[in-house]
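thought: user wants a sequence for this fold. calling inverse folding tool.
action: design(structure=
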């Protein structure tokens, strides 16, 4: 087995909240149902899911509750410290900074979701 290409289980996956799980449109937050479905797939796969936000833990927890994801995810304040993010196998984020071993860039607008 080639350990460089195999994944350990469960995967540690991070999702950014703003402009990823929430799509900002004017003063409203619109759920990104496509990305939420991806998050739920990983959750049902038994993976360890974290949702982070630069808005802080309280804001993130309240948003997760509104999205109906409570109990599925761990919540953290977002850090841009790459060394602190090395524990993550994958990150879904709108930031161009590499925050995990595999970074999936999320680009959204109100008409076209991921």
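)
observation: tool returned 114 residues.
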């Amino acid at each position: 087995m080639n350990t460089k290409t195999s994944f350990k289980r469960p995967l540690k996956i991070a999702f950014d909240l703003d402009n990823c799980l929430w799509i900002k449109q004017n003063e409203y937050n619109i759920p990104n149902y496509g990305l939420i479905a991806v998050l739920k797939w990983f959750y049902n796969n038994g993976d360890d899911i974290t949702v982070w936000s630069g808005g802080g833990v309280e804001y993130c927890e309240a948003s997760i509750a509104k999205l109906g994801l409570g109990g599925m995810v761990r919540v953290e304040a977002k850090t841009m410290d790459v060394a602190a993010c090395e524990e993550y196998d994958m990150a879904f984020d709108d930031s161009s900074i590499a925050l995990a071993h595999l970074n999936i860039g999320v680009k959204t607008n109100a008409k076209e979701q991921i």
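thought: summarizing for user.
answer: Here is the designed sequence. The chain has two helices and seven strands.
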